[in-house]
Design goal:
The protein is an alpha/beta fold and 550 residues long. The protein folds into 3 domains: 82 residues; 200 residues, Rossmann fold (3-Layer(aba) Sandwich); 228 residues, P-loop containing nucleotide triphosphate hydrolases (Rossmann fold, 3-Layer(aba) Sandwich). It is built from 18 helices and 18 strands.
Length: 550
């Protein structure tokens, strides 16, 4: 009989390991990174399928004494894990056809085959980042993955402006599930419901409730909102929701907004073990470039996440987006007024102390972006006027309130409305309705406030990125507001006005690197997309405009 290297027993929902000799304890902590390095003598691990399979594997090298009933449970869990993995491989075969019966959709609604595939994969692996392209129905897939399952009640965490849309446009319209939108950060007695809709802005007040395991599943919509990680208030709260849910699902067509290393923070809420610790991840996958952690081989990382069955992404054959970069005039007086302060900040960045240089760099970045937006605000407005005068409805993306003020003044002969971070949910809904059903034009939208917004594509196919963003995927989300099912035009046109001044040239150069990082992780093996640019349309509009001007 093989000698035992210690003891393993099940206590409640934890595996307890004890009496391990020092060399085995060291090896245990090397393999199971969740165990703190300083912990000694007694160790505990969760009673999950995957952990039990890993313990069974560990015991092939270091046998542990245990009761037969516990051994049967361990091997049962290992078997379930292996069956789930085999099931996941089967689901991803090109010939797979789901036989899952869905109960909970209203008459006339169901999941498409590709949505059923995502649902079945999620149920097999219990954690998934669903990165399907805009318009492929990630929200509906999430609902189909929850209805009629043991994973209710579930918590749905969304950007603030999407809570009503989830309930009105999807849950109430498509399903028989009951939903309740969480009001505020102070816990109260929750009414009966299948789905509880949280906002990223209020989950921090509900961590004690989440820690009880009340929510059997958690869905993070637009999960890129958590890309800054668990050291933020919303990030730390989201981790509690994730750790205490049996089923974890993240939704985003654009999970990488900046450099590829952001994926580590995203996977922290889906499967924290798949990329290891931050130190392990950066050592294996990254290098520092200009002070930023950059993924060395984004394609290899993207392939790994797919092979680990924690990331699923399908692309749709959508209409082309005609991206037209166009240089516009800038206000030289604004530029001249800003030059002296910018020069002073730049000097601090170059020669100041560590603290001074860091603060000055942040101030210079914010100042340069604002001044660039102001300097080109009237040039951008002139472009938008030309588009509107040709009969088009226009979505105008921006960021700074000061820039919005210039635009509102420039468009006072039209009917502009704002959909930004300063408007509440009712004001945003009013602006959306006015744009879709009324004569509002243009709709001035914050490039970071419209993620997931649906319905604008019914009346609009023209977008102007009035201010650039350090995250290129932010602008892709902006274009995605009109590049969605329901769009009747054969082509979307996105105008990208820029100036050869201020922050625009630097942002465009840096974003080229970030776009390649996102491409490799999202779509490994794909060639960098060639920008589809057809300037004939803008030239035709310019000629029409000139003909009207005496």
């Amino acid at each position: 009989m093989t000698a035992a290297y210690g003891r393993l027993e099940l206590q409640g929902n934890r595996w307890i390991l004890s009496d391990l000799p020092p060399h085995v304890a060291i090896r245990l902590k090397d393999v199971f990174r969740k165990i703190p390095k300083h912990q000694t003598k007694v160790f505990d691990l969760p009673f999950t399928d995957e952990m039990s399979a890993d313990l069974s594997w560990f015991m092939n090298r270091y046998p542990l004494a245990m009761e037969e009933k516990d051994r049967a449970l361990l091997e049962g869990k290992r078997s379930l894990f292996e069956q789930a993995r085999a099931r996941a491989e089967e689901i991803m075969l090109p010939t797979f056809k789901s036989t899952t019966q869905l109960f909970g959709f209203r008459s006339g609604y169901d999941l498409y085959d590709m949505q059923k595939q995502a649902r079945d994969l999620l149920h097999a692996v219990k954690r998934l980042l669903l990165g399907d392209d805009v318009g492929l129905g990630k929200t509906v897939t999430a609902l189909g993955s929850l209805m009629g399952t043991p994973y209710l009640p579930a918590a749905i965490v969304v950007p603030a402006h999407l809570a009503d849309q989830w309930v009105k446009k999807f849950i109430a319209k498509l399903t028989f599930m009951g939903a309740h939108i969480i009001d505020g950060t102070r816990p109260y007695d929750l009414p009966p419901a299948n789905l509880y809709i949280f906002r990223y802005t209020n989950i921090h007040g509900w961590t004690d409730i989440a820690a009880t395991g009340l929510f059997k599943a958690v869905v993070f919509d637009e999960i890129q909102d958590l890309r800054t990680g668990a050291h933020t208030r919303k990030g730390a709260a989201a981790k509690v929701f994730s750790d205490n849910a049996e089923l974890r699902l993240g939704l985003s067509a654009t999970p990488i907004f900046g450099y590829g290393s952001e994926i580590w923070n995203i996977m922290l809420y889906i499967d924290p073990d798949v990329l290891g610790s931050w130190e392990e991840f950066t050592c294996e996958w990254c290098s520092i470039q200009r002070g930023k952690w950059v993924v060395n081989d984004p394609d290899a990382l993207g392939s790994y996440l797919r092979e680990a069955r924690v990331f699923l992404r399908r692309l749709r054959q959508g209409r082309p987006i005609n991206r037209i970069p166009i240089e516009v005039d800038f206000d030289e007086e604004v530029a001249a007024d800003a030059e002296q302060l910018a020069r002073a900040l730049a000097m601090k960045v170059v020669s100041g102390s560590f603290v001074e240089a860091g603060q000055a760099a942040r101030e210079l970045d914010a100042f340069a972006r604002l001044q660039t937006g102001l300097a080109k605000a009237k040039g951008v407005a002139a472009l938008v006027k030309m588009l509107m005068d040709s009969g088009l409805k226009v979505i105008l993306g921006g960021w700074h309130r000061e820039v919005y003020s210039v635009w509102l003044e420039e468009f006072k002969a039209y009917k502009p409305m704002l959909y930004t971070g300063s408007e509440n949910a009712k004001q945003k809904e009013k602006a959306e309705r006015a744009f879709v059903d009324g004569d509002c034009n243009p709709l001035i939208i914050s490039v970071r406030s419209g993620t997931g917004l649906d319905g604008l594509q019914n009346v609009c196919w023209t977008v102007v990125a009035g201010e650039l963003d350090w995250a290129p995927e932010v602008l892709e989300q902006l274009y995605g507001r009109v590049d969605r099912p329901g769009q009747t035009q054969p082509e979307i046109t996105a105008y990208i006005p820029y100036v050869l001044y201020g922050s625009d040239p630097t942002i465009m150069a840096v974003n080229a690197i970030k776009k390649d990082q996102a491409r490799g992780i999202k779509d490994p093996g794909s060639a960098p997309a060639k920008a589809h640019t057809d300037e004939s349309r803008i030239k035709q509009l310019a000629m029409q405009f000139l003909e009207k001007v005496p």
